[in-house]
Amino acid sequence: MSDSIRLNHKEKVIVTAALTGAVTTKSDNPNLPTQPKEICESAIACYEAGASAVHIHVRDDEDKASMCFEKFEEVVNLIRERKCPVILNLTSSGGQGFSWKDRIKPFKVLKPEMASFDAGSMNWLNSVVFMNEPKFLELCGKEMIEAGVKPEIEVFDIGMLNTAKYYIKQGIIESPAHFQLCLGAPGGMEATTENLVYLVNHLPEDCTWSAFGIGKGANEIMMSALAMGGNVRVGLEDNVFYNKGIKAESNEQFIARVKRIVEELGKTVATPEEAREILGLKK
Ligand code: ZN
């Protein structure tokens, strides 16, 4: 395990808030931000609670999963107008069945510093195929390089990790790469420490990494990732419950907990500026 921390900073932890996602609804948790003003307020509150980055999805007017460019534009403009320095990370999937063009346009035009890159297809939540076919990934990788957007490589199983390594070798993803290990989605690897250790031990040596668990394994993955020197992602996209049977009050409630734990470990949460340095984001 001694070399498994990869390039993650020894003293600073990058905390990403996954604000909205595509799956959870206000009936699952009424505190889920779904419209641009709510998403902006949540992003700022998370930054103030210690988040270095916010991962953004949008919803349509009926709160359904969406890749509507105008909604992304509104959210990004609102956050930028407030001069909030948090790192913006836009989804490039947004749910299921969106066109390649719709998936690429938000990061291509709005130029956030990061965007998600889902490194393979999977049977999503035992319902549909989450399509990330090779030609799309090649295009997505090239567009991210052109736009100066760093991919946050989302990995749901070891096959996706191998796929990402292939694209790094091909120059479609630049090194050092940044990985988000996503555990606990039905169709992907379960949210266990064993799986987290396995994935981390197979990451490229020169990468940075973060992890999160969906559902009941969330706290285990968060604690294990922190113990292993990793960065973490938390938020209502991944969990509507704060603890078993207790619905989360807000995204920032999750961030505040991570901050407390990180400080108990003798570390600090990375400011957006420190996270930019660790991730090598272009200025
Ligand atoms: Zn997402």
Q: Which molecules other than protein and nucleic acid are bound?
A: zinc ion
| Spatial strand sequence of the major β-sheet | 2-3-6-7-10-11-12-13
* Whole-number count of domains: 1
Outline: globular
Gyration radius, to the nearest Å? 17 Å
CATH homologous superfamily assignment: Aldolase class I
Summary keywords:
about 35% helix, TIM Barrel, globular, two-stranded parallel sheet, single chain, eight-stranded parallel barrel, binds zinc ion, about 280 residues, 16 strands
How is this structure best described in words?
- The protein has 283 residues and is an alpha/beta fold.
- It has a single domain, classed as Aldolase class I (TIM Barrel).
- Helix content is 37%, strand content 20%.
- The strands form five sheets. Strands 2-3-6-7-10-11-12-13 form an eight-stranded parallel β-barrel, surrounded by seven helices. Strands 1-16 form a two-stranded parallel sheet.
- Strand 12 (208-213), helix 7 and strand 13 (231-234) form a beta-alpha-beta unit.
- Helix 1 (36-49) packs across helix 2 and helix 2 packs parallel to helix 3.
- The longest helix has 14 residues, at 36-49.
- The structure holds zinc ion.
- Residues 18, 21, 55, 57, 91, 116, 237 line the site of zinc ion.
- The site of zinc ion (ZN) has 7 residues, from loops.
